[in-house]
Specification:
The complex is a heterodimer of chains A (about 220) and B (about 220). Chain A is mainly alpha-helical. Chain A has 9 helices and no strands. In chain A, helix 4 crosses helix 6. Chain B is elongated and about 75 Å long. Chain B is mainly α and about 220 residues long. Chain B is built from 9 helices and no strands. Classes of the chains: A mainly alpha (about 220), B mainly alpha (about 220).
Chain lengths: ~220, ~220
């Protein structure tokens, strides 16, 4: 172990870890929006909403995230969509995790008792009002854990964007492995940051879950 | 914006097929490795012996909390530092295998714990040894519980196998990249690679569903 080397590159890893956090946060936000829209569309009886949502989930869950990122970043310019690495990464990861979020949110909405819908409808509440005021608040408390699992998976998945040259943790580790020939030290350093980020994220999710989760 | 031309993909189909073959070899080997290594990790993580349990859980914690790509770098670039030289393919199989062994171990542990404790006591009071109880009573029952989540892990493994292209394993993603460096048509070839992954994924899902139905029948 070369501690002097670790000390020298430490600051770069801190910066890279911050990029990983930023990237994950932004993609989770996109993913949650897409997931909510996707879930509502997928549950809708209207075929124009239902089938596109199904196709979206099936395609993005059925192909590797790396390929999706490559299509956006390398294939995009061919159809007139030129993106910098960071936005391409956020969009790619966001759309990808959105398809997983769709399924989790849909599951949570379906898990709310059907009696709730019937009662609300028979009280004269409209369909969309029933969804917004009765179903979603209850579903929100059911989806904390699955969405948390998706978020943790996304933080680890964010390492993929090093392949489209976003300077995050894995990219930084790779770069310093190349220049210092000290793979173990760089692995340990990057691993410590990942474990810290993931531990903090799971702690926060656990806290929210303890506070709000509804057990059925 | 130049026009898209998907007919180029057809000219390069031998390269893509070769890549697909490597992807299949890679996935089958690493699935086997992940299942085989998952069992001792699962048993170790619930062992009564703390000298076994603590290191196993630490190992699981580290490998669950770090990305696959980083682990691949550790194996491909790191093992030579201690004198172990592996080819890209071997590193890819080892990396995928160990990464998913950790996830499989988690699933298997839950499966083992979920088997009623009465089964354990019953088997022990019938005179079976601890190891026999585990092997002949607990694990066969646990297998039924774990078939669906294990299947999900295998599907995830197939998709994540695209990552090993970064450590230059000549699988489907890298074949697509080779074709792209010839033709400068990333959009078409990545779409084609994605479509192939989608089909393989679909087939794997179908066959896993059949396995799941079979194991569920013996309940």
């Amino acid at each position: 172990m070369d501690f002097e080397l670790i000390q020298r590159v430490f600051i770069y890893f801190v910066q890279a870890a911050w990029i990983t956090v930023e990237l994950s946060f932004l993609s989770v936000c996109i993913g949650l929006c897409l997931g909510l829209i996707g879930a509502l569309c997928k549950l809708s009886p209207n075929p124009w909403l239902h089938y596109p949502a199904r196709v979206y989930v099936s395609i993005f869950r059925g192909t590797p995230c790396l390929i999706q990122l490559f299509i956006i970043y390398f294939g995009g310019p061919q159809i007139g969509l030129q993106l910098e690495p960071f936005p391409a990464a956020v969009i790619g990861l966001g759309i990808n995790i959105g398809s997983y979020m769709t399924e989790s949110i849909r599951g949570a909405i379906l898990a709310v008792e059907s009696g709730q819908i019937e009662a609300s409808r028979s009280l004269g509440v409209g369909k969309s009002q029933t969804m917004i005021k009765v179903i979603l608040p209850q579903a929100a408390r059911l989806m904390i854990r699955p969405l948390g699992i998706n978020t943790i998976a996304l933080i680890k998945g964010s390492s993929l964007v090093s392949a489209i040259s976003v300077v995050e943790l894995t990219y930084t580790a790779h770069r310093y492995i190349g220049s210092t020939y000290r793979p173990f030290e760089m692995f340990i350093l990057a691993a410590i940051f990942y474990l810290a980020i993931i531990s903090i994220a799971s702690f926060l999710i656990q806290k929210v879950d303890n506070r709000y989760a509804l057990s059925l | 914006m130049e026009g898209l031309n998907f007919s180029v993909v057809l000219e390069y189909y031998p390269i893509l097929l070769e890549g697909l073959l490597w992807t299949c070899i890679l996935c089958v080997s690493s699935i086997a490795l992940s299942l085989v290594c998952g069992v001792p990790l699962a048993v170790g993580s619930i062992s009564k012996n703390r000298a076994v349990q603590l290191p196993t859980n630490f190992f699981l914690w580290v490998f669950r909390g770090t990305p696959l790509l980083l682990q691949l770098f550790l194996i491909y670039f790191g093992l030579p530092q201690i004198g172990i030289y592996l080819s890209p393919v071997a590193s890819g199989i080892l990396g995928l295998g160990i990464h998913y062994a950790v996830y499989n171990a988690d699933v298997m542990r839950t499966g083992i714990v979920a088997v009623e404790s009465g089964q354990h006591e019953g088997s022990r009071s019938l005179g079976l040894s601890k190891a026999q109880t585990m092997r002949k009573v607990i694990i066969p029952q646990a297998l039924r519980n774990v078939a669906p989540p294990l299947g999900n892990n295998l599907i995830a493994l197939l998709k994540e196998s695209a990552l090993v292209s970064i450590i230059t394993v000549p699988e489907l993603t890298l074949s697509a990249q080779r074709a792209i460096s010839d033709t400068f048509r990333p959009f078409e070839f990545y779409i084609a690679a994605g479509a192939i992954y989608y089909c393989v994924n679909y087939l794997l899902e179908l066959s896993l569903k059949r396995v799941e139905m079979k194991t569920a029948m013996y309940r």
